[in-house]
Amino acid sequence: MAIPYPHFIATENAAMDAGILLPSSPSVVFTQDDIKKIAAYKAVEYVESGMVIGLGTGSTAKLAVDRIGELLRQGKLKDIVGIPTSKITHEQALSLGIPLSDLDSHPVVDLAIDGADEVDPFLNLVKGRGGYLLREKMVESACKKFIVVVDESKLVNYIGGSGLAMPVEVIQFCWKFTAERLRRLFEEAGCVAKLRTFGEKEEPFVTDNGNFIVDLYFERSIGDLKAASVAILQLAGVVEHGMFLDMATTVIVAGELGLTVKNK
Ligand SMILES: O=C(CO)[C@H](O)[C@H](O)COP(=O)(O)O
């Protein structure tokens, strides 16, 4: 959806790089898509020739991957190796001619760029509402720098504070049992646990790794995030959760008045 951002200020270079015409009159209105693109392009300014780059997944990350492909084609970036965080990003990067590898061959990643679903004041994240959290976490925890690009609607006071899902990837075997154990862990926070489904037939969503997603919704804060993370990961049947704690090194926030860069 294109939400107008009437007061957004973009530098001439940032807007022109993103192919967006700069306002010739003060009444011009940027859309949310415009500013997402400007923010994604800003993140790609951190990419240097010769780097191993973690390629994120989602509508924001897609714009950054497109931009990396464009700079490679133009010869402005050279010798890049991309490590995709999903099958869909793998396909996108292949189609753009970005040389690809994996963590087995490149266990140290210089930089990753990705979107997020929530960002708290300490730069902790919720990711995985697209369903790609496991590979994203593997790649992004192997990074020296992890740059996150969001619009200001993703900023929350505390993790879970948007009232939207905190995804947990679980194995398919007895997923109801695992979902109930997850719900009980956070009973005091008013947790509801739901299997992620898609389509009219409400088929279970299956991740790139062949697992299901249980989405947790909280009425209240879950408190100590590290303790919550440990408790979730201790449950047999859980593969990974969508809290990315202490991982982001930079968050670029696109807001009504322009870009804000928050560093750890
Ligand atoms: O974690 C993710 C996918 O698993 C995405 O990065 C997250 O959902 C944000 O997506 P978008 O940029 O489309 O808002």
From TrEMBL:
GO MF entries: ribose-5-phosphate isomerase activity
GO process annotations (BP): pentose-phosphate shunt, non-oxidative branch
Pathways involved: Carbohydrate degradation; pentose phosphate pathway; D-ribose 5-phosphate from D-ribulose 5-phosphate (non-oxidative stage): step 1/1
Organism domain of life: Eukaryota
Keywords (A to Z) from UniProt: Isomerase
Reaction(s) catalysed by this chain's protein: aldehydo-D-ribose 5-phosphate = D-ribulose 5-phosphate
Pfam families: Rib_5-P_isom_A
Family to which the UniProt record says this protein belongs: Belongs to the ribose 5-phosphate isomerase family.
NCBIfam families: PRK00702.1, rpiA
Name used for this protein in its record: ribose-5-phosphate isomerase
Organism: Vigna radiata var. radiata (Mung bean)
